[in-house]
Amino acid sequence: MRRVLIVAAASLWLLSGHAIALDASDFSDLEGYTVAKITKVDGDFEGCEYDKKITLINGWTLTCSTYHYSYSYSPQVAILSRDIGSGYSIKAVIGDYVYEMQPIRK
To answer: Which stretch is the leader sequence (predicted)?
Structure first.
């Protein structure tokens, strides 16, 4: 598990083209998650607010279940998932923030 998180952080850093200000405490709620996909936001990203849809260039759409403002154009996204029985708990690492997303049903 630790290796998966290290790979996710390293992938984001390499793909972003700039330094990311994440530290170990940012990973405290990610135990059990795996990297499902590395992609990009389709167009402008202006952070998350509850129930806001985030469209990705691979055709996926994620729905925010948290609030945090940030702005960038077409940033890299690491989508993390964890099996919760009836579906998957989803988190998205965008820039230097871990966003909570609504679960996806199986």
So the answer is: 1-21
For residues 20-45, one letter each, b for 16 or more C-beta atoms within 10 angstroms of the residue's C-beta and e for the rest, the string is bebeeebbeebeebbbbeebbbeeeb
Number of domains in the chain: 1
Structure confidence by residue, pLDDT tens digits, 18-66: 555 667 777 788 999 999 999 999 999 999 999 999 999 999 999 999 9
d(CA 62, CA 52): 8
Tell me the pTM.
Answer: 0.76
Beta-carbon contacts of 2 under 8 Å, excluding residues fewer than 6 positions away, are none
- For residues 62 and 91, give the distance between their C-alpha atoms in angstroms, rounded to a whole number: 9
Helix, strand, or coil (residue 73): strand
C-beta separation of 41 from 75 below 8 A:
yes
Please measure the distance between the N-terminal and C-terminal CA atoms of the chain and give it in whole angstroms: 23
